[in-house]
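Memo to structure team: turn this sequence into structure tokens by end of day. - J.P.
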Amino acid sequence: MRLGIISDTHGLLRPEVFDLFAGVDRILHAGDIGPAELLAELEAIAPVTAVFGNTDDFDVRGAVPEVVETRIEGFDFLLVHGHQVGMPTPETLHQRWPAAEVIVFGHTHRPLLTIVDQVVTVMNPGGAGPRRFDLPASVGIMELEPGIPPRARLVPLTGADED
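Reply from structure team:
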């Protein structure tokens, strides 16, 4: 299974996302979506599982939950924006949700792919919407096969100095 991982779109769905997510089986959006209509645009690519972030309005909060704990291809996933723990780190998220084998979060706009506690894969795809903090806009791709650790990569959508 191939997952498209996205976060912090803040109402901007860049055209590059449609090319990068072509052929994904599912999209995970880790919050700060923007208008709820953005989810429908992503649904045109693949089924979407999303959570709301701290900047999402009541329409989005009424359409998606704050936290999703689900099983995908034999792995226990946590999808969360991360604002629930202040400024999230892989360690604080793992401490709060210790059963998760794969943690996907947003909020910081900083792309991150790491391992915690030797077995937990943690990904923050970075901010895919308007650039913030002089960081490139980015998304993630994750490949899942039962019995094999997740394989993932971060994909920049812009250069470090491009909008």
